[in-house]
Amino acid sequence: MRLLDYDTTQQMGATVVSSTRITPEDSDTDIRHIDLVVDRVDFSYQVGQSVGVLVPGPHEYGQREYLRLYSIAGGTRADDLRPVISLCVKRCFYIDGFNGERYDGKASNYLCDLKKGDAVTLVGPYNIAFALPKDNGANLLMIGLGTGIAPFRAFIKHIYSELGGWKGSVRLYHGAMTGIELAYMNDQNADLKYYYDEETFKAFEALSPRAHFNVPVDLAGALAQNADEVWTLLQDPKTYVYVAGLKQISKQLDEALVKIVGSAETYEQQKKMMIDQGRWAELIY
C-alpha cells in the first residue's frame, strides 16, 4: 500500500513529552526515543501498529503536508490519562550520487528537531503488520536492523511486562553499524536488557565488521552462530517470524538462512509455507 493511499482526514494533535538521544553525542548517528502525549483520550492502538506523522509544508509538488509512518515502540498513560506513545527515530539523509549534495529526510529531521512542548499532528493508527499469536506457547523469531527494533521493543515489553510472560521461545536478532548505535541496548538506554533474566528470552547482536568502510551489518554471522536453533525454530509449526528494517534486510536474511538450511529450494519452500500460514511477516521501508 502506497503512502498516498492512506486516509489522513482523521487527524489528531499530540505534544512532545520528551526527546532523548539514544546514541552518544559524539556519534555520527542520531537516533532518538520520542514520547508523544496524544490529545485524544480515547486513542488506542495494538502492539504492532504504526502511527502516521504529518510533516507541515509546503513541500515539493505543492504538497501541504508529508506523511511518514513510524512503528509504535511502546506506550503508557499520562497523569491525566491521555495516552503517551513512543517512537524510535533515526535522523536520515542521503548523498546524491550525481551532484554530491546532501538531502535530509523530511520526517526524520522534523521529528528529531522537535523539543519538549512542541505540537505534532498524527493520523492512524494503521496496519497490524505484526500480530502476536494468541497461543503464548508459540515461538517468536524477531529480526530487525537499525530502528527496525522499534516494534519488537513494544512486543517484548508487552509480553513480559503486560501479559506476564511467554512460554514459547522468544529470540531477537538485531543489529547496527556499531555497538553505540544499538537502539535500546547501549549505555544511554539499555531497557531491553531488563528482560535478559526472562527464561524464554534471548537477544543476539549483529554489528558491522568494518563500520568505517560502510561494510554491512553481519546479520549472517549472528544467525550462523546459532544455526541449529534457528533451523529448528523455522521447522517448528509453532514458530512465527517477524522481520523489520530497511529493504536490504530481506536479501541479507534470505542469503543467511539459505546457508543455514543448506538448500535454496528447501528454504524457499519453508518460507512460502510460513507466509501462506500467516507465520512470516515483514515490515520493510
What is the structure about, briefly put?
This protein has 285 residues and is an alpha/beta fold. 22% of the residues lie in helices and 32% in strands.
Task: Give short descriptive properties of this protein.
single chain; 285 residues; alpha/beta; Elongation Factor Tu (Ef-tu), domain 3; Rossmann fold; 2 domains; seven-stranded antiparallel β-sheet; five-stranded parallel β-sheet; 6 helices; globular
Summarize the topology.
Layout: E1 11-21, E2 31-38, E3 50-56, E4 65-71, E5 75-77, E6 83-90, E7 93-95, E8 102-104, H1 106-113, E9 119-126, E10 139-145, H2 150-162, E11 170-176, E12 201-207, H3 219-224, H4 227-235, E13 239-245, H5 248-261, H6 264-276, E14 280-284
Parallel strand pairs: 10-11, 10-13, 11-12, 13-14
Antiparallel strand pairs: 1-2, 1-9, 2-6, 3-4, 3-9, 5-6, 7-8
Helix pairs in contact: 5-6
